[in-house]
Write a structure and sequence with these properties.
Length: 72
């Protein structure tokens, strides 16, 4: 599944995208690694992608709460 990501470029996060149909949030880090979190609600994904501090939102709201799958 290809998820279109938009540039973030803040807090070590290069880009992120969300697939509403599958509820998957995909995040690309500055290191080049790409991960996906499953069963993420649209509001949480929107808040993360538009945050002025996405790394904080990720750590506080997403990182340990949703199943993770390493893509790259």
């Amino acid at each position: 599944m290809a998820i279109e990501r938009k540039p973030i470029r803040r807090g070590g996060i290069k880009s992120a995208g969300y697939d509403r149909a599958s509820r998957v949030l995909e995040i690309e880090f500055d290191s080049g690694s790409i991960i996906q979190h499953t069963a993420v609600g649209e509001e949480i994904a929107r808040r993360f992608i538009s945050a002025s501090s996405p790394a904080s939102v990720y750590k506080d709201t997403i990182q340990d709460e949703f199943t993770i799958r390493r893509v790259k």
